[in-house]
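Handout, section B. The chain below has 230 residues.
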Amino acid sequence: MRRHPRRGEAGGEVSGPSNPSQRGAEVGRRIGVGLMYGLWKPRVLGAWRMPAHGPVILAVNHSHNIDGPMVMGVSPRPTHFLIKKEAFVGPLDPFLNRIGQLKVDRRSTDRTAVTRALGVLADGGVLGIFPEGSRGEGDFASLRAGLAYFAVRSGAPIVPVAVLGSAERRGRLVKGLPPLRARVDVVFGEPFEAGDGSGRRTRSALDQATERIQKQLTSHLENARRQIGR
């Protein structure tokens, strides 16, 4: 089994701002459990596939605002999501920071966010990413290179996660949210390695990694839809 570099080891040293709190992310997970199971009916499939220890990247499709909190609540391990800085407003700013979430400026190369995200992985934690960058159809049709960079740089396996049913429009009581008590399926896939084993981080290597990732994520989403009939 590959041993992932830790902070201070060759190739794994991450310096800069302090890493988000693992304890805070666990608090966030418990809050998410209460909210998600209280308001909707999550059905979680394949969570056992997620490695119990070591660095992991969750690659989540994104069609609705509740996708992140839903995965945070049902994940078997506390998760640090990269979240657009626009969400960190008012009282949400200190709250999201306290529960170990990562603010990222999507309009530029946010080096602080990159450093903190790599720090999560160097510490053996779980990093959550929406590889499409923003909400859309949730079909992994357009991936940004950030996911490939984090996976190749850290050596962490990627676990694909399909959230299905969160964008259901029928029967909504609150605009922008799925119907209360509606079923939302969260399907975890098999972990996979994004790199080719060479450790190269050239533009060509990252482009190839992105292609491999997109094929794996699209395949998982198609299999998840067949499995649950959505």
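Note. The helical segments are 22-39, 67-74, 92-98, 111-122, 146-154, 203-228. Compare this with the example in section A.
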